[in-house]
Design goal:
The chain is mainly β. About 0% of the residues lie in helices and about 45% in strands. The strands form 2 sheets. Strands 1-4 form a two-stranded antiparallel sheet. It has a two-stranded antiparallel sheet with strand order 2-3.
Length: about 30
């Protein structure tokens, strides 16, 4: 699992994107 900063959204394992928190989690 890699975590990258994102300007607008946070995605947690396909969960609901949350505005203004800012991480993208990409599962390999």
């Amino acid at each position: 699992v890699k975590i990258f900063p994102d300007q607008n959204l946070i995605f947690v394992k396909g969960a609901v994107p949350v505005h203004k928190v800012a991480y993208v989690i990409i599962e390999k």
